[in-house]
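Notes from hallway chat w/ T.B., transcribed later so I don't forget. T.B. wanted the structure written out for a chain they're using in a teaching module, and asked if we could keep both sequence and structure tokens in one place. Agreed to drop them here.
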Amino acid sequence: MQDIQIITLFNKTFQQAYNTRLVSGGEEPEYIPADNRVEYHRIIYKQDYIASALHEIAHWCIAGEVRRQQHDYGYWYIPDGRNQQQQAEFESVESKSQALEWVFSNACKRQFVISVDNLDNDQSRFDGAKLNFKHNIVEQARRYCQGGLNTRASLWCRELNNEVDVGELEPPHYLNKANYSLDTLR
């Protein structure tokens, strides 16, 4: 799947019903709700990275109606250089979105790579936390498989899956718990 394909697919799927468009080329990922200058909500993903698009779409799928009316869904963000406590807070929020990104990646047959998003810090100090983060992502992905996905996430998975035409029978491969383990997480 290429950059233009994901934009076209997302916009075809969600633009009319949710007044939301996917936009490529941002310096940083960002969600901007509609305002008096732009009449539609924008999910902006970093440069032309499909993984960034899938991740930002995961945030959008998780966010409820009230959060989707706020810039970046009203969440805090501390850039690179977070201390251990700040990193732990980041990971507690990110485990859900990264697990959903993993499900999306499986739906379109792309490799998922975990992101600690804290490259300026000495990662050796966070090795134990990173393993815990991985466990949380695996467990959340399995919960998505067991409990199902919300309406937007489910629709997006089906659209991604149809786009790559994997031709599998129900239940879809991306909802198979066996596909989510520490062994398969990079």
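Follow-up for T.B.: The mean pLDDT is 86. Might be a good example for the class.
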